[in-house]
Amino acid sequence: MAIAKAERLMNLALCLLGTRRPLSKRELRGSIEAYLEAGSDDAFNRMFERDKDDLRELGLVIETVENLDGDTGYLARRDSNRLPPITLDAEEAAALGLAAKVWQQARLAGAASGALQKLRAAGMPEAEDAYEVHSALEPRIPVHEAAFEPLMLACRDRRAVTFDYRKANSARPEQRQVEPWTLECWRGHWYLAGWDRGRGAERVFRLSRIAGKVRSRAGAFTAEVPDVVTVRETVESWAGETATRTALIRLRTGSGYPLRARAISVRELGDGWEELEIPYGHGLDAWLVEFGPDVVVREPADLRADVVDRLRAVAKD
């Protein structure tokens, strides 16, 4: 169905761009096969109006013209739908080249490389790659989660989705119905921000905890999409990044490297254990549970109790 609609929109766009005079609905219906197959005039009118709105939303400028007889016609003038020449200086070209490199390990690698080749063919200047010439480091955004591509498309197309999600304190996933807003990578993990219909509130989901397929749902969004979605700030607050206290934990030697990266101090305990002092904020208990038997909370007592409660909940599931 998606392919059929895309083909119908393309045919309508070509008709409107290829005419020198406004075309009436009757003429457009006779020129496009999908419109000819419409069961009734009402069905055709609904289909045409939706398609016209979709093309306008995609950026096509469609003019509505009324002739002397009172008939309404439609056309898309080429001069109104022609992009201006692309002019980039060396610094802008370097920024685009760097952005394309970032996606080379992701599913967008082909699109990024293709876009860069087209810009170069159109005259974009070749820029020196500072990362390649002067550094052994290369920027990457790894994307290993199968949920990334369908969620990226759902965010772009404003389509609601359903998926099974496993919380940190639960052994079994549960289904979530979400209106996706945006994706963001933070500290090597991808997160989705959106409106959780079941809970009636904004939520952030870590893609690595999504189980199974992401499925699209019909219908428009029920909640307003905010102008600015603060994914990173939300994740930081839930991960304890906005901490005002510290916690003391025991960590098995050779494990828990993300915790070590945040440690304020580290002390050897012997017998394969170390003691770490780490920032303590909201959500730290859920994060510590992920390290299982490699972490033991010593203090504060309320954090230790929260971690024990979460572990017991997992054991019950």
Number of helix segments? 12
| Model regions low in confidence, pLDDT < 50 over at least 5 residues | 130-137
* β-sheet strand percentage: 15-25%
Q: Which geometry do the CA atoms define?
A: elongated
Count of beta strands: 12
- Strand arrangement across the biggest beta sheet: 7-6-5-4-8
Largest sheet: 5 strands, antiparallel
SSE string = HEHHHEEHHHHEEEEEHEHEEHEH
If you compute it from the alpha carbons, what radius of gyration comes out, rounded to the nearest whole angstrom? 27 Å
Helix content: 25-40%
Describe this structure in words.
With 317 residues, the protein is an alpha+beta fold. It has helices at residues 2-18, 25-31, 33-36, 41-57, 90-102, 109-121, 130-134, 148-157, 231-238, 257-262, 284-289, 301-316; strands spanning 23-24, 63-66, 72-75, 160-165, 174-186, 189-196, 201-206, 210-217, 245-252, 265-270, 273-280, 295-299. The strands form 3 sheets. Strands 7-6-5-4-8 form a 5-stranded antiparallel β-sheet. A 4-stranded antiparallel β-sheet has the order 10-11-9-12. A 3-stranded antiparallel β-sheet has the order 1-3-2.
Summarize the structure.
The protein is 38% helix and 25% strand. It has 317 residues and is an alpha+beta fold.
Descriptive key words:
single chain, 317 residues, alpha+beta, five-stranded antiparallel beta sheet, four-stranded antiparallel beta sheet, 38% helix
List the helices and strands and how they pair.
Layout: H1 2-18, E1 23-24, H2 25-31, H3 33-36, H4 41-57, E2 63-66, E3 72-75, H5 90-102, H6 109-121, H7 130-134, H8 148-157, E4 160-165, E5 174-186, E6 189-196, E7 201-206, E8 210-217, H9 231-238, E9 245-252, H10 257-262, E10 265-270, E11 273-280, H11 284-289, E12 295-299, H12 301-316
Antiparallel strand pairs: 1-3, 2-3, 4-5, 4-8, 5-6, 6-7, 9-11, 9-12, 10-11
Helix pairs in contact: 1-4, 5-6
